[in-house]
């Protein structure tokens, strides 16, 4: 696609109007790999189909490989990577973080001696899965950070998701996302108002912290002065004469 024909990438404050931003976008693996990144949005892991911002995806396919990667320390979290093939011509890796205490064959025993199974223990090679997660990149390749996974129990479930995926493409991806200028201006004003409110709140919190700190310091100084004053009064009144006489003072 030529640069001139590319749809405009709207500012971040307009993303909440997109039909994809807070949605599990049901895509094929090949489509996920074609999603683009644009400067200024990498920190939030936003990817784009045309100008539609996508952060959360959903994929249906067969697990063709499972690999475990140990963490750097004995009790650190390890990574389990599922390679999923959805017959789109490309595979994609789905990443699951596994706490150290569950990263053992057959699970571990809890405090009552009961056996605790590791998460997603039935996800193995050959399983047909419905995976939901957030997108990220690792060594230049896109991957899914698993939020939820379900093993499909029959062809009917798989076919139903294929139909849902096709509907998502027709109703969302294949339709241009165009905002009116007045909608963009309204979003900008709302963002500026929100930012100004956050700045006022930050300044109020700073002022309150300063006042509390000054009050605490003043109270401590007053307490020290009271102790010193009481001590001087006791000396002047002779209450400590015997003590100081004993020291030859």
Automatic annotation (TrEMBL):
Pfam families: Stn1. It is found in: Chromosome, Telomere. Gene3D superfamilies: Nucleic acid-binding proteins (2.40.50.140). Signal peptide: none annotated. The keyword Acyltransferase does not apply. This is Telomere regulation protein stn1 domain-containing protein. Keywords: Chromosome, Telomere. Its main location: nucleus. Residues 33-198 form the CST complex subunit Stn1 N-terminal domain. One of its GO terms (cellular component) is chromosome, telomeric region. It comes from the Eukaryota.
